[in-house]
């Protein structure tokens, strides 16, 4: 894309995040932030937010691209994702701004990042690089996240849950092992769950492209919801 990062993601971009407040007082110290797929904020992320809120947590599904700026065709989605992930500094600056805009009224709360596909990687980025993050749940997320410049700059207190399709063509065995070795070298608390017979986008009901390694798997999705619910309860 020939446009600058700011013109694509920041300049004159109006965003409308989807906020649902949990009603459980015992969980009022927590805020969940949802990072969307490369298609941008959709009904899928809103449904996930509603599910998490039903567990008693306050949650915000982020509008990554802005109102009426979600990419439509595959080429545009890939181009926007490429521009977003091109440089660590600009990516993290945008993520920090979006997190703060979603959480500006909840100073002092602990933030847990949840993400899907591209959003899975963005959740891992936020968990590793933002000091106010305490947890990450990545669903079929990419493992090519930017590593911290040094161990001292890594937010090692974040707990990490990765839910991965074992046959996901976008997460190679080498990618998975590299990520696990990295977290282990930092002494981080991580779980990496491989679901057999599952590929990319196993959580998305609209995913139906098995020839390209993307397919909804309702049983795996049901299991993954259970993992998420248990993970979130660790912070209560």
Automatic annotation (TrEMBL):
Domain Dienelactone hydrolase: start-end pairs: 29-235
Signal peptide: none
Keywords from the UniProt entry: Hydrolase
This protein's record includes keyword Zinc-finger: no
Domain of life: Bacteria
One function term, GO molecular function aspect: hydrolase activity
InterPro entries to which the protein is assigned, alphabetical: AB_hydrolase_fold, Dienelactn_hydro, Dienelactone_hydrolase-like
Pfam family, one: DLH
Tagged with keyword Oxidoreductase: no
Name recorded for this polypeptide: Dienelactone hydrolase
Species: Marinomonas profundi
Lineage: Bacteria, Pseudomonadati, Pseudomonadota, Gammaproteobacteria, Oceanospirillales
């Amino acid at each position: 894309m020939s446009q600058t990062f700011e013109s694509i993601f920041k300049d004159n971009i109006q965003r409308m995040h989807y906020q649902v407040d949990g009603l459980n007082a015992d969980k009022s110290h927590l805020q969940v932030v949802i990072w969307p797929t490369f298609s941008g904020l959709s009904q899928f992320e809103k449904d996930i937010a509603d599910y998490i809120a039903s567990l008693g947590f306050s949650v915000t599904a982020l509008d990554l691209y802005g109102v009426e700026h979600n990419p439509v065709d595959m080429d545009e989605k890939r181009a926007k994702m490429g521009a977003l992930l091109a440089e660590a500094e600009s990516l993290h600056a945008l993520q920090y701004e979006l997190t703060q805009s979603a959480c500006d009224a909840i100073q002092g709360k602990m933030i847990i990042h949840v993400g899907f596909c591209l959003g899975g990687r963005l959740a891992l980025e936020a968990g590793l690089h933002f000091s106010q993050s305490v947890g990450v749940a990545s669903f079929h997320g990419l493992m090519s996240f930017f590593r911290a410049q040094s161990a001292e700059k890594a937010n090692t207190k974040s707990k990490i849950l990765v839910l991965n399709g074992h046959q996901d063509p976008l997460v190679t065995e080498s990618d998975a092992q590299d990520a696990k070795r990295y977290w282990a070298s930092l002494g981080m608390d991580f779980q990496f769950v491989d679901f057999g017979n599952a590929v990319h986008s196993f959580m998305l009901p609209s995913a139906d492209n098995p020839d390209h390694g993307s397919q909804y798997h309702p049983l795996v999705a049901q299991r993954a919801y259970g993992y998420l619910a248990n993970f979130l309860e660790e912070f209560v």
